[in-house]
Amino acid sequence: MKKIVAINASPRKGWNTWSMVNEASEGARSKGTEVQFFDLYKLDKHAGCMSCFACKREKNAGKCVFPDGLAPVLEAIREADGLIIGSPNYLGDVSSEFHALYERLIFQTLTYKKNPSRYDYRRIPVLFIMTSNANKELYMPLGYKKMLKRYQDGFNDAVGNTKMLVAGNTLQVKDYSQFDWTIFDPQAKQEYHDNVFPKDLEKAFDYGVEMVDKAW
Ligand SMILES: Cc1cc2nc3c(=O)[nH]c(=O)nc-3n(C[C@H](O)[C@H](O)[C@H](O)COP(=O)(O)O)c2cc1C
Questions:
Q1: CA of 15, closest atom in ligand 1
Q2: Domain boundaries along the sequence of the chain
Q3: Is 196 left (phi over 0), alpha (psi -120 to 50) or beta?
Q4: Which residues form ligand 1's pocket by a CB distance below 6 Å?
Q5: Is 216 in contact with 125 (CB distance < 8 Å)?
Q6: How confident is the model over 49-102, as pLDDT tens digits?
Q7: How far apart (Å, rounded) are the C-alpha atoms in residues 77 and 5?
Q8: What is the mean pLDDT of the chain?
Q9: Probe ligand 1: pick from 8, 13, 133, 148, max atoms within 8 Å of CB?
């Protein structure tokens, strides 16, 4: 595997989502694969799908060509052998930046024809990471599992086989005493961050290795 594209869809560089995506990238790099890293919130001005339908014109055939900050990311994914993408959970969903990219990545592949329903594209393995305040055990009762499955299905259909990794109960801020928050136990949060989050990072690293080794 020559090149993987890794994408952080959190505004906070160096925090939970970025760290998970970075660790998966390190796993891939440890196998000699080049990783091109994008921070979506740092890109030039861009938006989700502009509904121009240029991707459905014969000359573009399945390629989003809207010229903005997301264009180089979409181009890099089209040339990549794998995709690692992470989003924080925002209001029970992905971040708006994640969704902007997702709209353009997925919609470009649809033909709006009965047959074939999708343009030809090279399938690549995908790792979709989510970090959240909620612990993994709450994913089912809160409906997050269903939400994740929807994105997984979208990636499966339009990009390639997709594995999921969740890091829950994340540390939201360094110093909880600075905020007027009453629902968290700062000590328990810190302990979880110190003891469990490193294991989530290890899992991310292992997925990066596996993506290169098995190209699922
Ligand atoms: C706007 C906003 C909405 C959030 N909504 C949720 C939510 O619905 N469920 C949840 O579990 N965590 C929620 N969180 C917490 C984040 O998902 C969590 O802290 C995440 O790990 C942050 O990622 P980061 O450290 O990479 O920024 C929210 C945070 C923000 C800022």
A1: 25
A2: 3-214
A3: alpha
A4: 10, 12, 15-18, 88-92, 131-134, 170, 172
A5: yes
A6: 999 999 999 999 999 999 999 999 999 999 999 999 999 999 999 999 999 999
A7: 6
A8: 97
A9: 133
Contact yes or no for 115/38 (Cβ under 8 A): no
The dotted CATH code for 3-214 is: 3.40.50.360
- CA torsion 123-129-130-136 (nearest 10°) is 110
Q: How many CB atoms lie within 10 A of CB 216?
A: 15
State the CB neighbour count (10 A cutoff) for residue 65.
Answer: 14
Quote the ligand 1 centre to 117 CA distance (angstroms).
35
Q: How confident is the model at residue 3 (pLDDT cuts 50, 70, 90)?
A: very high
Task: Give me the pLDDT at residue 193, please.
Answer: 98
The structure's pTM equals 0.98
Contact by Cβ (8 Å): 90, 52: no
* Separation CA 55–CA 21 (nearest Å): 29
